[in-house]
Amino acid sequence: MRILLAEDSRRLSGSIKIGLERKGFSVDVFETLMDSRAAIESVQYDAIILDLGLPDGEGLDLLKDLRNAHNMTPVLILTARDRVDERVHGLNAGSDDYVLKPVALEELVARLRALLRHPGGALGQTLTAGNISFDTSLREVCIKERPIKISRREMSVLEQLMRRFGRVVAKNVLEERLYGFEAEVTSNSLEVHISRLRKRLNSSGATTNIHTLRGVGYLLSEENK
Questions:
Q1: Which domains does the chain have, with CATH numbers?
Q2: What are 21-41's pLDDT values in tens digits?
Q3: What whole-number distance in Å separates Cα of residue 68 and Cα of residue 94?
Q4: pTM metric for this prediction
């Protein structure tokens, strides 16, 4: 899952980024409204963590613009503004949660996952494909009802393929969901994850297989026995 963090404190944003990435998220950090807007226009994020006081304007302006454009990406406001009227204003402007600084990483992760479990969110459902099941809340993959060990990147690839089971997923879509702007991505990074995931599924007895469509993308489908 890919998260946008709009926060101008490099110390805080660096700490949050490291913490969230350890929990399986991909995080893009931006210090200004302008850069945040540009990123949102080019990437489909699963959630946004938004500071209100940014160097070039108010975070609420970005939030209002998103909602006016019918962009319902979950937004968690993270701010030091603790007055009741400010919290009410933020929630009424369309935010899904309002969290005060400082916040423990465990609480931030819990609140973020709660937002992603809302109807239509990225979490909160169990995906199935053949004899594979993927609990998106627990981040647990089972084959024939037995949990398997799987890396964070491979799990992200599998999730996207399972969400589009039986349909082709373009290579650039997978790369967008897996990697942040600052990630070092080689030309064959995705192919390596696909290859490892394919071997892991096959060795665990999965009844599905990942097919490569050269120049197009990848397809997860049930094997014909």
A1: 2-116 (3.40.50.2300), 126-222 (1.10.10.10)
A2: 888 888 999 999 999 999 999
A3: 10
A4: 0.66
